[in-house]
């Protein structure tokens, strides 16, 4: 994939990130399906956080042939634990973009120093499980949400 670029986001990417969230099947394995207003507010909040608290957030986007194809985000919460999420537009899935985005995210998290990291994934979300498995050392049932697994690692 010669034309795949992983880069930091620009304000003008907001709509395209929302479009990834809105693409087919995005919320199939989520506990709830937020409406458009909530998705827009969520993406706005990411961009606000990038300015107000840059040490606690990492956001990358994948650009394929000059079009935004996906994103990956890590946000640092309690006890220096990063929480990771990634999404690829339905039209561009199964081309390795999710893996490349997560690799970039982990490289940056490692650079930022010792920490733990977790990802919560539905047990039926095979694509996501395959994508995250390479990066996390352990996983187990997530007691907080029936049917979900929690992947964890630290460095
Ligand atoms: C999860 C998601 C980001 C993966 O993105 P992607 O670019 O398609 O992932 P990749 O192409 O890098 O594939 C990752 C692995 O999953 C496999 N895979 C991808 N889609 C699959 C599918 N529908 N069924 C089974 N396996 C699948 C790939 O073959 C690859 O496996 P490998 O590691 O053995 O080579 C994408 O499916 C998505 O956006 N899903 C909706 C949102 C979501 O569930 N996010 C995850 C929350 S962390």
UniProtKB/TrEMBL annotation:
SUPFAM superfamilies: Acyl-CoA N-acyltransferases (Nat) (SSF55729). CDD domains: NAT_SF. Residues 4-155 form the N-acetyltransferase domain. PROSITE patterns: GNAT (PS51186). This is L-amino acid N-acyltransferase YncA. It comes from the Bacteria. InterPro entries: Acyl_CoA_acyltransferase, GNAT_dom.
């Amino acid at each position: 994939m010669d034309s795949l670029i992983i880069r930091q986001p620009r304000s003008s990417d907001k709509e395209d990130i929302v479009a990834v969230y809105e693409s087919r099947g995005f919320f199939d394995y989520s506990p709830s399906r937020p409406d458009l207003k909530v998705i827009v507010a969520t993406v706005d909040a990411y961009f606000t956080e990038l300015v107000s608290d840059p040490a606690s957030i990492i956001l990358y986007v994948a650009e394929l042939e000059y079009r935004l194809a996906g994103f990956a985000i890590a946000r640092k919460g309690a006890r220096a634990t990063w929480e990771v999420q990634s999404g690829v537009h339905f039209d561009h899935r199964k081309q390795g973009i999710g893996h490349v985005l997560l690799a970039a995210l982990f490289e940056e998290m490692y650079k930022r120093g010792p920490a733990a990291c977790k990802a919560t994934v539905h047990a039926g979300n095979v694509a996501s499980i395959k994508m995250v498995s390479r990066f996390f050392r352990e996983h187990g049932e997530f007691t907080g949400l029936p049917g979900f697994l929690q992947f964890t690692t630290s460095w």
